[in-house]
Amino acid sequence: MTDNYRTEGETVSFWLKVKPRSARERLSYDSNGQLRLELHAPPTEGEANQACVYFLARALRLPQSCVTIVSGQRSRRKLIRIAGRSATETISAMQAMASAPRPGQPMEKTG
Predict the structure, then answer these.
(1) CA nearest 41: which of 64, 26, 21?
(2) Residues of the chain below pLDDT 70
(3) Which of 2, 28, 68, 110 has a CA between 20 and 30 Å from the CA of residue 35?
(4) In sequence order, which residues have a C-beta less than 8 Å from that of residue 9 and are 6 or more positions away?
(5) End-to-end distance of the chain based on CA atoms, in angstroms?
(6) Euclidean distance between CA atoms 58 and 102, whole angstroms
(7) Which residues does 65 contact at the CB level (< 8 Å), separation at least 6?
(8) Alpha-carbon torsion 52, 59, 15, 89, what sign?
């Protein structure tokens, strides 16, 4: 899944599929291995875009100014750029969030 991310110095860029008007808010991988963000916000008047930036900034504990939608403001598929911490830390945090077990889903056994 690390091939989803592109780094430029300490900046990380990645494509994200946004699903507005979802029952819950979460970051996950879809069946194709692409990042997917489910949000409560509707896709009108930029509300889903704002919610996307807010969700990622809060989850990564960064100011909202560190999260930018580079492309796809009017599309469900968005190019996101994150700055403000090392690229390695950002990618690790994103992978941990997206791979977290869903409520009610059994934990994978290791070993």
Answers:
(1) 21
(2) 1-2, 101-111
(3) 110
(4) 87
(5) 22
(6) 19
(7) none
(8) positive
Q: Who contacts 105 (Cβ-Cβ below 8 Å, separation ≥6)?
A: none
Q: Looking at residue 8, what is its pLDDT?
A: 94
Q: What are phi and psi of 77, to 5 degrees?
A: -95, 120
pTM of the model: 0.85
User: Are 8 and 83 spatial neighbours (Cβ–Cβ below 8 Å)?
Assistant: no
Best CATH choice for the domain 2-98 from the list 3.20.20.370, 3.40.50.1820, 3.30.365.10, 3.30.1200.10 = 3.30.1200.10
Q: Please give the C-alpha separations between residue 15 and each of 37, 38, 60, in angstroms, as whole numbers.
A: 11, 14, 17
Give 13's strand partners: 6, 81
Parse the chain into domains and list their residue ranges. Answer: 2-98
